[in-house]
Design brief:
Elements: H1 7-14, E1 26-32, E2 35-43, E3 49-54, E4 59-62, E5 64-66, E6 68-76, E7 86-91, E8 94-98, H2 111-119, E9 130-136, E10 139-147, E11 153-158, E12 171-172, E13 177-183, E14 190-196, E15 202-205, E16 221-222, H3 234-242, E17 251-255, H4 257-260, E18 262-264, E19 285-287, H5 290-304, E20 308-311, E21 315-316, E22 329-333, H6 340-352, E23 356-361, E24 366-367, H7 387-390, E25 391-392, E26 397-398, H8 405-422, E27 426-429, H9 432-436, H10 458-474, E28 479-482, E29 504-506, H11 508-519, H12 522-525, H13 530-533, H14 535-538, E30 544-548, H15 560-563, H16 568-584, E31 588-592, H17 617-635, E32 649-656, E33 661-667, E34 673-679, E35 685-692, E36 697-703, E37 719-721, E38 732-738, E39 742-750
Parallel strand pairs: 17-20, 17-31, 20-23, 23-27, 27-28, 28-29, 29-30, 30-31
Antiparallel strand pairs: 1-2, 2-6, 3-4, 3-7, 5-6, 7-8, 9-10, 10-13, 11-14, 12-13, 14-15, 14-16, 18-19, 21-22, 24-26, 25-26, 32-33, 33-34, 34-39, 35-38, 36-37, 36-39
Helix pairs in contact: 5-6, 8-10, 16-17
Amino acid sequence: MTPTLPTEQIDRIVWNQHHDPFTVLGPHEIEQDGKSVWVVRAYLPDAEAVSVVTPDQHKEYPMHSVHHPHFFECVITDAPHLFSYQFKVKSGNSDRLIHDPYYFKSPLLTEFDSYLFGEGTHYQIYEKMGAHPTTIDGVDGVYFSVWAPNARNVSVIGDFNSWDGRKHQMRRGNTGIWDLFIPELKVGTVYKYEIKSPAGHIYEKSDPYGFFQEIRPKTASIVTDLNTYEWGDQKWLETRRTEDPLKKPISVYELHLGSWMHASTANPPANGYPAVSAADLKPGARFLTYRELAEDLIPYVKEMGYTHIEMMPIAEHPFDGSWGYQVTGYYAATSRYGTPQDLMYFIDKCHQNDIGIIVDWVPAHFPKDGHGLSFFDGTFLYEPEDVRIGEHKEWGTKIFNYKRSEVKNFLIANVLFWFDKYHIDGIRVDAVASMIYRDYNRKDGEWLANEYGGRESLEAIELFRHLHSILFTYYPGALSIAEESTSWPMVTWPAYSGGLGFNLKWNMGWMHDMLDYFKLDPYFRGHNNNYVTFSIWYAFSENFMLALSHDEVVHGKSPMIGKMPGDEWQKFANLRCLYGYMFTHPGKKTMFMGMEIGQWAEWNVWGDLEWHLLQYPSHKTLQKYVSDLNKLLRSLPELYTQDFSESGFEWIECNDTQNSVISFLRKGVDGEFVLVVCNFTPVPHHNYRVGVPEKGFYKEVLNSDAPIYGGSGIGNMGGKYSDDYGTHGKPYSVDVTAPPLGVVVLKYIGEV
């Protein structure tokens, strides 16, 4: 039989070199002998014989091999219109019926989708890119699309086609997006993209927009449907939408899901998910699943009084030791702990227990792993080619090309995706400084100035402004927290006023000052009083969050308790004093897991927390103290409603360097206030007079030296009445007892 198209076209299909196989394969209307007829073509490398079967008409048309033994076609002369058909394929001793992928010619990705993606404003691009179970013309299957504009060819490969890139070749659109609907594939299908570079090199890549991946060390993507979970958090979402989070108490429990607590591999998960071993360094241990964490972690966080959980990165990453900060699957919740629906269940249960969810988001860099974004289509696609702006050499990672619209769209839509599909409440953005400074951690000659000769990354700045202008429009009440370690101005100012648009920023200066101060022997603290007081000079220039994070208890920095001087009693007293000052200082709060129990070891991503320490009173009482701090924060609007206003804070005494005692007021919007007195030495101060603005009774609502917290029990017997003579510029004063290494909080009650 003579082929109905040039043999060169057939060869391009056979050799997988055609950018649009739809022009060759599938049904085509042609003219033959002056008559309009239909020709159906197929390339089926494993087939011995093929027929076109029309179930509606109960007809079968044998196909013939033309030019190549596995390229088949048949001419149908008795069908005036396009008809539905299947292939009857004979391979060995078996026959099977299959649908022809190249029958389904209309892409789900429209020209308008492509246009928006090309200009970087398709904020739900994840609804079109990736793998989506769908039905076309009554046939169930999966629609695939991937952006690889410089690829010579792209195919979908998986178990369903023996990982053979010849079998499901994709079509390239004008914007460099390749797509294909594959009939009969289902949720659970394992797949990758086989990408041929312009030079003909072959790469097997995970789906950048894939929603699920195999459990590491495997790297293939898995088809899933994110729309099947039934949420029960509507009340939470509505409340979030209508309230200002910055006027509410925020106390965040930062944790790494894989090292909070482990289970035994001898006891696999009850829901049938496979037991995922934690690490070779901890034989017999497995990760808890998202559903198990919902049962164990949520009650703990709720009892401890935290308002939010911050999860270190849960997007898919290949190496446990990166802590999640080297992401390969930005749209895939890591399969270490379960399915996407399992994570949805965990977040849903958090919301039903009045706990918000913050996730770490990592737009600063991505790893070079071969299955990931690096050199994705055989060219520098997601990253700039110039290593001076395209690579973090110290981290061994690539930097996103923030100048490219499609890459910006990938990142902005990714944030919206987590809010949309997983109902998260906030993001904490990692390593912001590395993005906004082109010379970050680079020597002279190793970085490239911007177009104006400066060191600022104008593209990254625009990314943040664009992101936040959209995020807070789509999701009022959301949190966006910057880990920004420099003095860059206006990080938490709105984008329209020239800021980066975040609504919170980690106060790295406060953290470093306080840890440096508390490491000192108390004898020397009086000479370093500025460590304690300096933060107030700039406390209201940004919306700050005070964070004692995972970075402070790793790499030889010592755990929190290990940083404290003195004997064991003094170490715990110092730690209570630090936490007390933190919770009464202006700003929202973040503490890393394990800090609440005073564990002696640095955090180890391969292990779990030292829960056994809670059998000892000093650790158990510290845990109760942190719980009570959280509950105190929630109960006193004076401690949170004006975190970002000078009206919410007033020094009483900040210059008593001889005694290393400070005192201040925290004020609410309704005129109520609390008095805070901090003694940073192990010497108690009785009859320590502090000026106050109002006459009446000051009730002691917290004393870090109370016996229930492991303290010595020196306090104020429930509270103090003011005296009618003033000091510190106030008309009245109270005679306070400042316990050793202690913090006391006295709530003004009024005249009783």
